[in-house]
Design goal:
The chain is of the alpha/beta class. Helices cover 21% and strands 27% of the residues. The strands form 2 sheets. Strands 1, 2, 3, 4, 5 and 6 form a 6-stranded mixed β-sheet that branches. This is Dinitrogenase iron-molybdenum cofactor biosynthesis domain-containing protein.
């Protein structure tokens, strides 16, 4: 198994689509065999394709656009999104099947559905700013 995590100063990058580099971890039976780092193009879908060409089958990331998430699905990459934390602790949590812990949920996301708050409907089912604001 090859796992990819977009890296920003030793932590999971908050937004996959704008990440400049990723850590690639090759694993077997929950043991790390090799680790390397690759440059990314800051274009989400192109990065997904690049990761797949490198043999990545699992992507752990922070927020991700719907387009990039769809590309991951098409490419057969298992996606764990809206994750935060240090790279090493996230890898350890993944190995121990504890990545779903609240500790690793990106701030501003609903832990139960893993969706950013900005997609939440406002009062009476309308988007924020639609009602009661002067234009």
């Amino acid at each position: 198994m090859k796992l990819a995590i977009p890296n920003w100063e030793g932590r999971v990058s908050n937004v996959f689509d704008f990440a400049r580099k990723a850590v690639i971890v090759e694993m077997s039976d929950a043991r790390e065999l090799a680790r390397s780092e690759v440059a990314l193009s800051r274009q989400g879908p192109a990065n997904v394709v690049k990761l797949r060409q490198l043999g990545v089958d699992t992507l752990i990331c922070g927020a991700i656009s719907r387009v990039s998430a769809s590309w991951a699905s098409v490419c057969g990459i298992r996606l764990f999104s809206y994750v935060t934390g240090g790279i090493d602790e996230v890898i350890e949590a993944f190995k121990n099947e504890q990545l779903g812990s609240e500790r690793f949920v990106l701030p501003g996301c609903w832990p139960s559905v893993q969706r950013p708050l900005r997609h939440r409907a406002g009062c009476h089912g309308r988007r924020y700013g639609h009602r009661g604001m002067k234009r």
